Amino acid sequence: MAYSTRMRSAVGAVRAALEAAGLGLQDARFARHGSHEPDADAPLVLVACSGGRDSMALAAVAATVCASLGLRCGVVVVDHGLQEGSAAVASQAARRCEGLGLNPVAVRRVAVRAEGEGVEAAAREARYDALAGEARARGAAAVLLAHTMDDQAETVLMGLLRSGGVDAVAGMPESFERDGVRFLRPLLGLSREDTTGICRDLGLRWWDDPTNGDGADGPLPDGYPLRSRVRHDLMPFLERFAGGGVAAHLAQASRLARRDKALLDAMAERATAEAVAFADGECGDVVMTLRADVLEREPEAIRLRVVAHALGRAGIPCTSRHVEAIDRLIVRWHGQGAVSLPSGHSANRKKHVIRVCQDGLHANRRCSG
Hints:
Layout: H1 5-20, E1 44-48, H2 53-69, E2 72-79, H3 86-99, E3 105-109, H4 119-138, E4 142-144, H5 149-162, H6 165-170, E5 175-178, E6 181-184, H7 192-202, H8 226-242, H9 246-275, E7 276-278, E8 286-291, H10 292-295, H11 300-313, H12 320-331, E9 339-341, E10 345-350, E11 353-357, H13 360-366
Parallel strand pairs: 1-2, 1-4, 2-3, 4-6
Antiparallel strand pairs: 5-6, 7-8, 8-11, 9-10, 10-11
């Protein structure tokens, strides 16, 4: 079968992502024409599939690429249980993936509990937990995610609406590790139009999530997820306003921003190693300490990054307001009291050390030396 231009682009993108992750050609025989079965102990690549057009296209392309490299290729379908009939949708997606020759095909149902966060965020956390759990259980070498250029552009806009800064503009990385599992996003250079075309070229059927609001007249109500409203309302407006090309422009901007973010992260990691210590449980309720005398020598961008990342590693949710308040303890300290943080934590400075505690007063009394 002759591949379309978009199919060739997708095949090249998936192959490049796998090779960059160390999952290249397994044996010379797979470079020869003809069908070759991967070895039983060949690395396993899993595709996260919702049954939508993007992930169905990725599943089909990954099956082709993995076969040409001598890799095993399977699928994980996550059922969030948030919509009526979700189990049937997941089962249908699994059957379609089985029809593509993917093996294994696993369906994982998760419980989404939005405790202090939105349903979208809770569903994302539950989904990644399920994908990582399945990958670890099967010893998978990588999990492929079907985010496209359009998803990247939407992510950048959502980041700007919610917070801003380099991290927001940087969007989603091409690869990352979570819970010991490598995740890859090989389709960030392809558009949603490309994945739709691939499905049509291959005769694949897909499921459209009703929460996306596809086909709705007028702006979506506030009850729809933010991503759906950005996709349905904001992106088309920007495309009309700019005369097209907005998604590609935002995706390119995110690639450039990720370079800057990588440098800032590396600098922050070096400062963290010198200035931050996480508690070992021997000092009451102290969660971590920060050396103010070390951090005050760093540029503001690095200080703020160190504090934000350290709080995140300690499992303390924070906003820019909390991070900036701790930064004032570092560079503008004049004996002021503790900074109140979420989840019953506080940060208090004594001499050159800032202690972040679960119960600030009690911990500071016990650990005042």
